[in-house]
Amino acid sequence: MAVYAIGDVQGCLDELRRLLDRLQFDPAVDRLWFAGDLVNRGPKSLETLRFIRGLGAAAISVLGNHDLHLLAISRYADRLKTRDTLLPILEAPDREALLDWLRGCPLVHHDAALGYCLVHAGLPPQWDLELALACSREVETVLRDDDRCRDFLAHMYGNQPDTWSADLSGHDRLRCIVNACTRLRFCTREGTMEFRHSGPPGKQPPGFLPWFEVPGRASHDLKLLFGHWASLGGTTDAPGVFALDSGCVWGRQLTALRLDTPTPQRISIDCPGTRRPG
Asked: CB–CB of 37/71 below 8 Å?
């Protein structure tokens, strides 16, 4: 059995199929881990969601910020943005089945046998594995409850609070968890998160570091997989930290990392046919 972690697909189904052909992926025996952002900006969000859901037990995905945005606009249409490419999902006859499947995805996935942990964006420096999984479960429980899910999605957007604390409660606590797992790039040594800068390290405000470079972060002993940060080009210099988003939807590459080998193997395909969103 081969296990592959795949970076942000964002509705680029043709590119995903080409990558799976390159991997000689067999859903009967192989497994895929998706780093979230399955949808939006690319041309085939509906078809991508159907395809990955149709893989059944052969695929798992964590939630990305675009996936959560889809859930939000499915309940609150006024959240739809001009550049979103999500209307085909909202108008599909199987929309509720697709959305229910998405609501069942976690924020953090960990495989003890392989020793890898998958999250869309990152982990605050205060979080070890136990806390990351516990926080993920808090949000999962809310998303899977119809009434609580609708209420949370109405309050999900916003940058505050920007620092994790065990004393947080209610919507503030859930929003902080979601922002950390799906939007984090830079933070201070104390864990204050910054959400405005999406470029590569070097142009962030003073005092902020890539989350995976914070000295003494509690997750330093984990092998961490993440997407979300396309401007990293799918690489980091941090030991045990593996970037997966290599900018497929921006016309660059779609990347898979094989996890079941002694040394992880990176396989990428070029995506020149995908146009820059907007």
From this structure: no
Give the DSSP H/E element, type plus range, for residue 15: helix 13-23
pLDDT (tens digit, 9 = 90+) per residue, 77-108? 989 898 899 999 999 999 999 999 999 999 99
Q: Report d(CA 62, CA 56) in Å as an integer.
A: 14
Cα gap 55→58, rounded to integer Å: 5
Please give the structure tokens belonging to residue 213.
């470079």
Q: What one-letter code names the amino acid at 133?
A: L
Span 166-183, pLDDT tens digits: 999 999 999 999 999 999
Tallying the residues shown for the chain, one arrives at 278
CA–CA gap between residue 175 and residue 72 (Å, rounded): 13
> Both tokens of residue 159?
């940058």
d(CA 195, CA 106): 22
